[in-house]
């Protein structure tokens, strides 16, 4: 059974940093796509950062380019999202997700496995 468990969320002030982690059990990040997504109250879930194990390419939403970095440690079966220069508009529930197939990694609908989410709150 595949389980993804996020951690690292919290409350920070504008300009602060957080590193989110997503530990997988029953799954390897060495294939398919892995991604971080977020959903703020009243808004649709959106892709924040994704990584393709097939093409080794990354995708970042325009709103986070230059501030967020996705990385992974396959030995630890963990994916990270380093978030710097945080802004109040980054406040949301953050989810990691994975899919073991060759898909468009920024396509939310393509993902098979989701974590429960970790809350990030940025105050001004």
Poorly predicted regions are: none
The count of β-strands is 11
Helix content: under 10%
Oligomer: single chain
- Indicate the radius of gyration in whole angstroms: 13 Å
Q: What is the number of helical segments per DSSP (H or I, 4+ residues)? A: 0
Choose one word for the global shape. Answer: globular
Written as H for each helix and E for each strand, in order along the chain, the element string is EEEEEEEEEEE
Structural class estimated from helices and strands: mainly beta
Described by strand count, sense and barrel closure, the largest sheet is: 7 strands, mixed
Calculate the mean pLDDT score and round it: 96
Cα separation of the termini: 40 Å
β-sheet strand percentage:
over 45%
Descriptive overview:
Helix content is 0%, strand content 50%. With 124 residues, the protein is an all-beta fold. The strands form two sheets. Strands 2, 4, 5, 6, 9, 10 and 11 form a seven-stranded mixed sheet that branches. Strands 1-3-8-7 form a four-stranded antiparallel sheet, with no helix packed on it. It is globular, with a radius of gyration of 13 Å. The protein starts with a strand and ends with a strand.
